[in-house]
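Structure ticket #2291
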Amino acid sequence: MRAGCVLYLGQSIARLATQHSRAGVCLMYVAVKGGEQAIDNAHRLLASRRRGDTGIAELDVEQIRQQLPLAVARVMSEGSLYDPQLAALAIKQSAGDLIEAIFLLRAYRTTLTRFCASVPIDTSSMQLNRRLSATFKDLPGGQLLGPTFDYTHRLLDFTLLAEGEHPGPEVTPHATLEPCPRVLGLLAKEGLMKPEVDDGERVADITREPLEYPSSRAQRLQALARGDEGFLLALGYST
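Resolution: structure written out below.
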């Protein structure tokens, strides 16, 4: 009933706006009085929904940080702020709505001072927990499957309903880590990748400055890092 009323009201306003515009009259919305109390109560309702059953222990920020690492990582990435604790806090405050949590972290980020820019580092000796390549079958350093959902067959694991510890992964004693050079470096050696030359210009920040075209490599990478995960996934599958 409400939806129909809202739709009818919207259509009526649209017709009135059209009629008044033809007559040279400007139609505007007016402020509604008495909204502060409703907003305050909405905040209380949200806090109550976030808390849930008070007979169950409240979810701690540290639990979110430790046990929901992928959600924390996404909020940090799209929020452009590396702080696991603040990302976990935003997830708790938003009651698990990751888009709202990202907005919260972005808003907080605007209050911080930018004091430096990251610099490229040599990652060939970095310890990796996952490394797969769809281009090369054999890579220097090998391919690491790591923690992944790829082979879970999308089946619910009902053992997670029971409390208790689950067996950890098998560990190979005295394992040696081989250097893992970047695949792009291999392509560059074969002349298949155009090398990037550092021109010494200041790195732009798309969170503080409007994006200009043609955009620089740094701006494109920043846009991809902050982009919505679902949009980027659809973009990847569309190419």
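Closing remark: Confidence is low (pLDDT under 50) at residues 1-14.
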